[in-house]
Predict the 3D structure of the following.
Amino acid sequence: MPSRRRFLAHSSALGLGALGGCVDALGSDRPTYTTPGTDGPPPPPEHHAFGSDGQWSSPGFDASNTRWDYRGSAPRDDARVRWRYPVQEGRAPTVSNGQVFVSAPGELVVLDAMEGEELWTAPTEPSWVGVPLVRNATAYVPVETDLRALDAVTGEELWSRSADERFTPPATVGGEELVVGNGEYVRALDAETGEERRSRRLYGTVNAPALGTTRSPTTTTQAGEVYVLERDGTGVWRRTLRASIEAPVTLGRDYAYVTEVDDTLRALDHGGETVWRAEGVADFRFGVAYTDAYVYAVDGSTLHALDSDSGEEHWAHHLGERAGVPAVVDDTVYVGGDRLHALDPEGTGERFSVDLGGRVGPDVSAGDGALYVPVTDDEGTDLVALETA
């Protein structure tokens, strides 16, 4: 890692600020940011490289937690507020079919994506509600030790499953089976009924699993374990890392990217061997955003752009305040902090930033041409939808 960094001095003006020359030229021969083919219709989720249905329908965008919506659209050069909605907690929502699914203590709130109007709510008493997965017109909502399936249009409960430990948000490829963490177990559930098809106990509390086109669950535990399982629940490999893990794993085309609590980011190959390791580049709570050329990670107030194959740091950008996890939509990297920042993916500069009156984050999601960002100030938190100005 370099010992010195050169940071751009940020504009002190409120509102939009066009900022340029914002990066450190750390690495040589920066790779070109590329996307898979976008001509024609996208492949169905069961054949998509990352298990994506083309919408931000899970906390990590797709089944592989890439946070990379390369076919999507969002404000690129400037932004204005489409609507604001008061919420109780600051996590970005999932978005599907023109609906925005907002988790809050004691309820799930569903909003119209264009108007921000409340469509329906599902009370959950004073319980923790996780960010839901939405597939095939069904919202799968973790509520403490319950996992509930709700009709995405009406909010009607379709089924509910209870356990002794808290459920993580589930993952799915094709929408037929849900893979979910539950205490020290990984469970595979029938998506239509909630019935358990199989389970496997691991060492340590399980974080949210990730799936690729093989549908083989890859998951981490808070005890510092990384597991890849066969679809029938048997083990493929297991690796013990030196530190605890809290963030979800991200699956790229070739490697699994794992963030440890000491802010170390690792790339593991298909056999579980460490291909590269970068220290002090990734916040242990949230994970990373993956693209074919780059892995984007935030540590403290700095956004790092690493080569996805080698781990070499190609550029870095100072955000001015402690930030969360980045997201990539089309050809723009978005990350919060004291403002919302929109950057060129190859590090040529900041396209715009916008002051929304509070701290932005910790995460960002997108859909229907808008970005959805939690904004927190002394009076509380709003979910803000931003569109092209």
